Amino acid sequence: MPTVHVDLADRAYQVMVENGLLVRAGEAIAPLHSGKRAAVISDSNVDPHHGDTLIASLTAAGIESTRHIVPAGESSKCFTQLGKLCSELAAERHDRSSFIVALGGGVIGDLAGFVAASFFRGIPFVQIPTTIVAQVDSSVGGKTGINLPEGKNLVGAFHQPSLVLVDPDTLTTLPPREFHEGFAEAIKHAAIRDAAMIGELAALDPDNRQVPAELIARNIAIKARIVEEDELETLGTRALLNFGHTIGHGIEAAVPYGEMLHGEAISLGLRAALFLSKKLSDLPAAKAQEIEDLLKQYHLPVQLPDAITTETVLDRLARDKKFQSGQIRFVLLRDAGDAFLSKDVTIEHLREAIEYLRS
Ligand SMILES: NC(=O)c1ccc[n+]([C@@H]2O[C@H](COP(=O)([O-])OP(=O)(O)OC[C@H]3O[C@@H](n4cnc5c(N)ncnc54)[C@H](O)[C@@H]3O)[C@@H](O)[C@H]2O)c1
Ligand SMILES: O=C(O)C(=O)C[C@@H](O)[C@H](O)[C@H](O)COP(=O)(O)O
Ligand SMILES: [Zn+2]
């Protein structure tokens, strides 16, 4: 069973990756938490598939739980759901010895994690990710938060989970679109840190739901090593995980939240970033093509819909956290597996890259 240790001093934790782990979640969680009351936060799609299994496992391990369900989808990463969940926890008389269990995709992980960071000024939380995005990326690293109409993830906190339990079997209930979108984050990891994984992803059948636990763990390890180096994104290393996210976030926020899934927007952002990496850095055209082909193989979008205007994308991305004192910090590739943070990308370059997505 692959386990990845995230080494962050007093905030260190394990990420366990194992088929069938959801049934044993209670056993894994109980020894880590002195409190025996949990608030399970999930969404209206995930709870009917996996909620009962989790609650039964917690109960069997002596953990009493309350159940909190938000509407499925990106639009739930908002102040309304944050406030509602905090009120529900207070009404259920959760206290500082309680902990949260987030059961769902990246939306639930980010939202429930922010509830955990805020309620009573912070209580522990466990991540049980159920999408590819969440299993290879969002459940690890401690970025929690919500969106604003003005842009993605503009309000939030760093709050590391106390444990992450990844059960690849939960991926079998994902609809095809939601299954494929997550591979954009795995392709991102390969592009920035693990060129060999490009070939390995290309060798897999993109429609096979039996995603190898080793592949998920390999992605988690890439992210964990970067987070260990630069937990709060102050040094620049962690910003490399934002490859494809400047334009990607701009596109995701240019339409009503949820209309374009995160991974789909990031696929477009990756293609734009590959274009700029060829133009402004040394990325060989053949490498860029190989990564772009991988996006297509995983049924990810590579063309910007006509209805999304370049000016709207530019407006949304200008509010991104990566803009500091008016300067853009943009992630480019020198080569596959070799990313760096550039200050040479201008608004004109961004405009050109967004237009390129129409070709
Ligand atoms: N914190 C981070 O480091 C980080 C990293 C990457 C992405 N994110 C965030 O994650 C979010 C996207 O996450 P996502 O793509 O997982 O979206 P999501 O959580 O909305 O899940 C996608 C859809 O799949 C459904 N679903 C989830 N698991 C299911 C399952 N096992 N069976 C059936 N249906 C299931 C959900 O209900 C939803 O409709 C974005 O808000 C993004 O900003 C955060
Ligand atoms: O964990 C990180 O760091 C990442 O950048 C991972 C991204 O995939 C993720 O989408 C993250 O939420 C982006 O963070 P943001 O700070 O740019 O909003
Ligand atoms: Zn992302």
Automatic annotation (TrEMBL):
Pathway: Metabolic intermediate biosynthesis; chorismate biosynthesis; chorismate from D-erythrose 4-phosphate and phosphoenolpyruvate: step 2/7. The keyword Transcription regulation does not apply. One of its GO terms (cellular component) is cytoplasm. It catalyses: 7-phospho-2-dehydro-3-deoxy-D-arabino-heptonate = 3-dehydroquinate + phosphate. Binds 1 divalent metal cation per subunit. Can use either Co(2+) or Zn(2+). Pfam families: DHQ_synthase, DHQS_C. GO terms for biological process: amino acid biosynthetic process; aromatic amino acid family biosynthetic process; chorismate biosynthetic process. SUPFAM superfamilies: Dehydroquinate synthase-like. Its cofactor is NAD(+); Co(2+); Zn(2+). NAD(+) binds at G106, V107, I108, G109, D110, T130, T131, K143, K152, T170, L171, T172, T173. Zn(2+) binds at E185, H245, H262. It comes from the Bacteria. One of its GO terms (molecular function) is 3-dehydroquinate synthase activity. The keyword NAD applies. It is an enzyme of class 4 (lyase). Keywords: Amino-acid biosynthesis, Aromatic amino acid biosynthesis, Cobalt, Cytoplasm, Lyase, Metal-binding, NAD, Nucleotide-binding, Zinc. CDD domains: DHQS (cd08195). Residues 69-180 form the 3-dehydroquinate synthase N-terminal domain. Belongs to the sugar phosphate cyclases superfamily. Dehydroquinate synthase family. This is 3-dehydroquinate synthase. The lineage of its organism: Bacteria, Pseudomonadati, Verrucomicrobiota, Verrucomicrobiia, Verrucomicrobiales.
